[in-house]
Known about the structure:
7-stranded mixed β-sheet, two-stranded antiparallel sheet, disordered C terminus
Amino acid sequence: MYTSIALSLGLTFFSALTSADEYSHLDKPPLVGNLDYLQPGLLANFPSTSNNYDPWGPGWIPKDCKDITTGAGFSPADITTYNIHYDDCNTAWVVCFHKDSPTGLDAMIDLLGRVPVGARQFIRHVVVLPDTSGHAFNSAGNLAMFDISAGTLSVYLHETGHSLDFQGAYNDGQLSNSQNWIDNYNQDPNVPDPYSQSNMVEDVAQNTVVAAYNVQVPGGYGSIEPNANNIFHQYATVQTWQRESGNLLVPGGTCWRRLENSETVPVDDGGSSKLRLRGAVVERGEKPDTSLGEGIEVIERVEFHTGDICSRKDY
Length: 315
């Protein structure tokens, strides 16, 4: 997945891009091996959001959750769907949690709630599955989290970065294919880490993590990274775009727009009022109402799938 770094710093720096090709591999060397060292600062400075949650009745699941679950080779019958009610929004986030997921439900809810609500608005569902590869992807605003990735705040920020990039969060459109991004990328000798080399889409998402750190952690990114200037123009561009679009990465405030929940569908073929779940026959529950709350503006659905580009592996 990763390409070894053999180019000298000088040669790489002068391999400037002249147009926005967001899916081509990048040849700038990584600044660091991974972004794990940002985790303590992120957890300490992105606060939890008070919440409560309730499970759906048996037999129902959001269609996007069902499609992601079956696509990954798991059974929807092993998923429990929850409404997560955060205090900063009058509309719940609907998440789908596999019974064998190693990350606890409470931990996942806490981490999702640490994503600032201005950015969290661009998350539709979260699907947590026990695939041990530990990767994650974003499909039309649905965050698919596998194994330990569901327990890492930087992964939520990274995948949310894709939502902001693709779904119209920024005033000036998609960042990763903009000339503004290319021009600023060309001014830096490095990208943040090896995963950022995948393409411009992943570079923007990783720089979203760095920008979030720089925005919220006292002293900014330079307080932990002595060579922060080597990627300054990239993370500063993300920081500028999020600020001009309403300080999306800054905690606080309340939601005012949301992605619509996907259609509610049966976990099975829906042909009976009874169904078998985990070895027991149960009555199908009442179909949940997943409409958005009063006054919430609908964010238009945009079809994209970062797994088709390069699945985001945990480091």
